[in-house]
TrEMBL record:
PROSITE patterns: TIR. Signal peptide: none annotated. Residues 154-287 form the TIR domain. Gene3D superfamilies: Toll/interleukin-1 receptor homology (TIR) domain. This is TIR domain-containing protein. One of its GO terms (biological process) is signal transduction. InterPro entries: TIR_dom (IPR000157), Toll_tir_struct_dom_sf (IPR035897). It holds the Pfam family TIR_2. It comes from the Bacteria.
Length: 350
């Protein structure tokens, strides 16, 4: 139940003021996609199990997977409109058409804020959050505070790129960095059975604050994912400040040729007895710099902010898949600044 409430909250439903049947069904259909409209078919996501979808009264058909429509398939699942109609018949308190003010929606979210803060405490928020619903406090304000206090682990991820023949030589560096407390991502240790490895690797690359690239004769001579990772890392490095440490090249073989794009970056040689220490010092320097810069800016402005990543996939024609980041704001001095977060969320979810 709580999961369903949170999902609807993230979609902006509590802030809606128009709860007419037409608007409600439009928003609900948008969760699944509008691909059925172009085919002149009532969406089974809404009307499954009613006389508005499927023979003998209406046309059937279903998108059986992304971008693949089967006109002979009839979805046997009940649609949300069918379920809503049944609930309204069984319980007169369930109704559509009533307008709800934004202030009422905010009050509902404010009431739920302490329980969200308590949930974050259950996830071992450190330091512990006080379940007081501060700053007008919508649940995402509590989540923003949690991100700030925990220093947002996503922004401190270290990604390890290597060629598969070098796995045994590289894993020891992973083990070393993990042993001294860093959050390190390497495919052979972090991928789980059944995960989409291509998606997970790209996601980790996008999240990473630092990328360690292990270069050897094998990695230079091979065409494959390691080369793609290096290219992605170097492309993203161009977006950083000139004095940022984003890519740390580690030379596993002293005679391995360096890619042209890395020649201007100071490398660490595995043959150097201080190799591990040099890697640790570079990571420590950059992460401290990132944390100090962000913290100083937030303290100076008396505004806290954090980022959350959202991923959406819509079925239908044309379908799409998108991943984006949204900023959340809170402040003890500017009580209404969290409304910026509301505007951003509503803009993305229109």
């Amino acid at each position: 139940m709580n999961g369903a409430v949170d999902a609807l909250t993230l979609q902006g439903f509590p802030a809606a003021t128009d709860w007419s049947i037409a608007r409600t069904l439009y928003c609900l259909e948008g969760l699944n996609g509008f691909g059925y409209q172009s085919r002149g078919i009532n969406s089974p996501y809404l009307y499954g199990g009613s006389n508005l979808y499927g023979p003998p009264e209406a046309r059937g058909g279903k998108f059986v997977r992304d971008h693949v429509f089967d006109p002979t398939f009839v979805d046997a699942q009940l649609g949300v409109a069918t379920i809503l109609k049944t609930l309204m018949e069984l319980d007169p308190s369930v109704e559509l058409g009533a307008l709800r003010s934004l202030s009422q929606a905010e009050e509902t979210l404010t009431q739920r804020a302490p329980s969200v803060e308590q949930s974050l405490n259950n996830l071992r928020a450190d330091p512990t959050l006080v379940a007081h619903g501060r700053n007008g406090s919508r649940p995402r304000d509590a989540i923003s505070e949690f991100h700030q206090q925990s220093r947002s682990a996503d922004n401190r991820l270290i990604f390890v790129s290597y060629a598969s023949p070098d796995k045994d030589r590289v894993v020891k560096y992973y083990d070393y960095l993990v042993s001294i407390g860093y959050d390190v991502w390497i495919d052979c240790r972090r991928l789980k059975a059944g995960q989409n490895w291509d998606f997970e690797i790209k996601r980790a690359l996008n999240r990473a604050a630092i990328i360690i690239v292990f270069i050897s004769n094998q990695s230079v001579d091979r065409r494959g994912y390691a080369q793609r990772e290096i290219k992605i890392a170097l492309d993203k490095a161009e977006e950083k400040l000139i004095d940022d440490i984003y890519v740390i090249p580690v030379l596993l073989n002293d005679d391995a040729p360096l890619p042209d794009q890395i020649r201007g970056i100071h490398i660490v040689k595995a043959s150097d007895p201080s190799c591990e220490e040099q890697i640790k010092d570079a990571i420590c320097h950059q992460l401290e710099r990132l944390g100090e810069n962000i913290l100083q800016a937030q303290q100076s402005a008396n505004i806290r902010w954090s980022r959350s990543t959202h991923r959406e996939v819509w079925d239908g024609l044309p379908g799409y898949e998108i991943e984006y980041q949204v900023l959340s704001f809170s402040s003890d001095q500017y009580s209404h600044i969290s409304e910026i977060t509301d505007v951003i969320n509503r803009t993305f979810r229109r």
